[in-house]
Write a structure and sequence with these properties.
By secondary structure, the chain is of the alpha+beta class. It has two domains: 77 residues, Phosphorylase Kinase, domain 1 (2-Layer Sandwich), CATH 3.30.200; 138 residues, D-amino Acid Aminotransferase, Chain A, domain 1 (2-Layer Sandwich). Helix 1 packs parallel to helix 6.
């Protein structure tokens, strides 16, 4: 499949047209951003690691019958995907309190939640990606029906259950993660974007050492070493 003209560039990826109007090529970038792009950097090899990790996770989800946009990994930096219209919603699943949840609600850092929490954030950098609820989704036309809202929540929880067990078997705790959804050419809602250390909080099971983008957020060192460790464990 030949990579044609660029159709979109985001913080972590570039999307290119192909010969098939319903298929795109995603190129993973080395750029790092945090705090709504207020903090920026670049680490060589980060994009390649995210592409490989995300490909392995999407392959796992395909095996578990989670409908998603992944077709195949083309090389270390490129992924072949179904073209989707992204729903402007960040779906965050939290298992252990940390980060913004602890600050917002005063829950002690590292507290295990009594159940997995699913939150919606409106994808809008100018508004700071505000947290929203089901009613906001309908008022704003992001999701029109209760069925669609519940479907996304159910899939988010299914993905969470799969990934908790998967990472646990690799000696890693899944603290929380962000996923996105889009509509395919048949208007079906499917999982999209990426699942990588850029979008997940991953801690070593024994030491609680951080192995994700919090390393960049908190100036804890080089993210590439941590991302490589995640890839080594899940291969």
């Amino acid at each position: 499949m030949k990579k044609k003209e660029l159709i979109y560039e985001g913080k972590g990826k570039k999307l290119y047209k192909t010969d098939d109007e319903n298929i795109v090529i995603a190129e993973f970038k080395d750029d790092l951003t945090a705090f709504n792009a207020q903090k920026k950097s670049c680490e060589s090899g980060k994009g390649s690691l995210n592409c490989q990790i995300s490909s392995l996770i999407f392959e796992l989800l395909n095996q578990k019958n989670i409908n998603n946009h992944f077709i195949k990994q083309l090389d270390e930096n490129h992924m072949l995907c179904k073209k989707v219209k992204i729903i402007p919603l960040e779906v965050v699943v939290r298992n252990i309190a940390t980060g913004s949840l602890s600050k917002r609600l005063g829950i002690k850092d590292e507290t295990k939640l009594p159940f997995s929490l699913v939150e919606f954030y409106y994808k809008d950098d100018l508004l700071g990606d505000p947290i929203i609820n089901d009613e906001h989704c309908k008022i704003m036309g992001i999701l029109d029906s209760d069925d669609d809202i519940q479907y996304i929540k159910n899939i988010a929880r299914e993905v969470n259950n799969i990934l908790i067990n998967f990472f646990d078997s690799k000696g890693v705790k899944l603290i929380d993660f962000k996923i996105e959804f889009g509509r395919d050419s048949n208007n079906n809602i499917i999982l999209a974007d990426e699942i990588s250390p850029d979008s997940c909080r991953l801690w070593d099971k024994e030491s609680n050492k951080k192995m994700d983008k919090d390393i960049f957020r908190e100036n804890l060192g080089n993210v590439v070493d941590a991302y490589q460790e995640i890839l080594n464990r899940i291969k």
